[in-house]
Design goal:
Strand order of the largest sheet: 1-2
CATH architecture of the domain at 132-315: Alpha/alpha barrel
Number of strands: 6
CATH class of the domain at 132-315: Mainly Alpha
Shape: globular
Strand content: under 5%
Order of helices and strands: HHHHHEEEEHHHHHEEHHH
Number of helices: 13
């Protein structure tokens, strides 16, 4: 009824834990299975409580933000690109001004410049390993020149170029040939590299490349024809990317060329996910509307300084110009 607060779930009752099964010290096959079920329920309830307490999530992520910019895996740890990506996406999924304002954009830009290398690649953290560098002879992208192409590197590198509007710098047909070759004929799933087993997370890292390539090739006047590990323990990472890959497969294309395929009943339909950012498109639009109202952080000062360091001729030109100005 209107005006009547909903009855709280039993799992939120402070005495709920007292209702867990007690075997009185006599363990049986049934009692062991019952405890497994209750442990599983506890895990689900814990996650439910976390995602339905959004202010607490924002506060926790704020504590994970490094004083020098970027986000760490936990409070007090060093900033790292992977949790930075996850934290920014999580805050955009929450989609409130409180969440957006957690992100210190000025310091985040400082952190990104601190991990950028002279050759254009990025290390995952200060002093860490290089992540994503080049397209190799296979057609995919590798971490550093000379290594084999990898699905995770390929998606991140391609998506970054899409964001920058520079995807034409890739050999798109070679990339398309490489990614469709990663779909295994028998299982139907994707492998991350040549001669590797299938892995559910690559249903996004690899299949997520297909709409990006479809869009890029369509802009060039080419419309490609594309084909739309079991027995492992479940985890949140693979749950996320398996569902993301399924969403990409269900909602393939764009507003001009959209093909929607839902296998089975309507209950199988997933919400669309953005093929670049991997959050719901409306969340991307809302975040863009918010951040586009704000000034660009940094004022492009650091890129200019970096260009000077990498181009000694520019310094000579400036010196010559200054000398000419003095003479005049």
């Amino acid at each position: 009824m209107d005006g009547v607060p909903p009855t709280p779930l039993r799992c939120f009752n402070e005495f709920h834990s007292a209702e867990m099964f007690v075997d009185d010290g006599v363990e049986t096959v049934t009692s062991v299975e019952q405890k497994k079920v209750e442990q599983s329920i506890e895990e689900v309830v814990s996650v439910y409580k976390q995602i339905h307490s959004l202010p607490q999530v924002c506060q926790f992520l704020a504590r994970c933000q490094s004083p020098t910019g970027g986000f760490a895996g936990g409070p007090g740890q060093h900033a790292h690109l992977a949790p930075t990506y996850a934290a920014v996406n999580a805050l955009c999924i929450i989609g409130t001004e409180e969440a957006y304002n957690v992100i210190d954009r000025e310091k985040l830009l400082d952190f990104l410049w601190s991990v950028k290398q002279p050759d254009g690649s990025f290390v995952m953290h200060v002093g860490g390993e290089v992540d994503v560098s080049c397209q190799n002879w296979e057609g995919g992208l590798s971490g550093v020149p000379g290594l084999e192409a990898h699905g995770g590197y390929t998606f991140c590198g391609t998506a970054a170029l899409v964001i920058l509007g520079k995807e034409h710098m890739l050999d798109l047909k070679a990339l398309l040939r490489w990614v469709i070759s990663r779909q295994m004929r028998f299982e139907g799933g994707f492998q991350g590299r040549c001669n590797k087993l299938v892995d559910g997370c690559y249903s996004f890292w690899q299949a997520g490349l297909l709409p990006l390539l479809h869009r890029a090739l369509f802009k060039e006047g080419t419309v490609p024809l594309v084909r739309a590990k079991p027995a492992r323990s479940r985890d949140f990472y693979h749950t996320c990317y398996c569902l993301s890959g399924l969403s990409i497969a269900q909602h393939f294309g764009n507003t001009d060329l959209h093909h929607e395929i839902i296998l089975g009943s309507e209950e199988n339909r997933l919400a669309p996910t953005h093929p670049v950012y991997n959050i719901c498109p409306e969340k991307v639009a809302r975040a863009l509307q918010f951040f586009l109202r704000l000034p660009v952080p940094g004022g492009n000062k650091q890129p200019e300084a970096e260009d000077r360091q990498s181009d000694p001729a520019a310094d000579n030109d400036d010196a010559s110009a200054a000398g000419s100005a003095d003479q005049s």
